[in-house]
Amino acid sequence: MKMVFFDVETTGLSPTNGDRICEIGILCCDNFKIKKSFSSLVNPLQPIHPAASMVNRITDEMVKDAPRFHDLADNILELFSDRIIVCHNVPFDMKFLQQELSLLNKPAPDNPVMDTLLLARKFFKFPSNKLQSLADYYKINPKNKHRALADVYTTRKLLMHFFEHFNKNGIDIYEFYGR
User: Fold this and answer.
1) pLDDT tens, residue by residue, 72-125
2) Catalytic positions, please?
C-alpha cells in the first residue's frame, strides 16, 4: 500500500479567515517502509498568531527567509501522486492545502484519504483522540511535538499500531474506507 503521511503547521486555525501554512511535513511510504521524507518551514507572508506559535513553537523570525508555498507546491504534489493521503484530522490539513493550491490556481489532489482520527473514533475507545494522547498511549515519543515532520512520523507509527489491531481482530479496513 502506497501512502503519503501529511501534516501542516499553520498561522491559525482557519484557512477561510486567511490563515496560512507555515510548515509542512510529508512522509512517503510503501507498506509503511519510508521511501522519502520532506519537511520545510513556509513563509506564510503574514504574522503567525501568538496562540498558534505557542503550540507549534514556530515564530515569524523562523519563517521570514523560508520558501513561499508557491516555491514548494509542485514538489509537494509530486510526492502525493498515486498515494493514499494519511493525516490525523484530514479535514484540517486538507483545507489548508486546498486553500494554498487554490491561491495558485492549482487543483487539490483527489487521492483517497485515510484519517487516523476517524479510525480512532470508529474502532477504539481512547479517553482522548488527540494525536499526542494516542502517541502517549502507544508510547510513541516524538522529538518535536506539534511540528509537521514529527507529527507525520507519529501518525505513521500510530497507523501501524491500528493496522496491527485490525489484522489481529479480523477487521477489514477497506469495508470502512472502500476500495
Assistant:
1) 999 999 999 999 999 999 999 999 999 999 999 999 999 999 999 999 999 999
2) 146
Residue whose grid cell is 507509527 = 157
Under DSSP, the state recorded for 169 is: T
Q: Which domain holds residue 92?
A: 2-177
CATH code where residue 167 lies: 3.30.420.10
What are the distances in angstroms from CA 120 to CA 21, 130, 136?
Answer: 25, 9, 14
When divided into structural domains, the chain yields a total of 1
Per DSSP bridges, beta strands 21-30 and 2-10 are antiparallel
Report the half-sphere exposure of 145 (CA within 13 A, side-chain side): 11
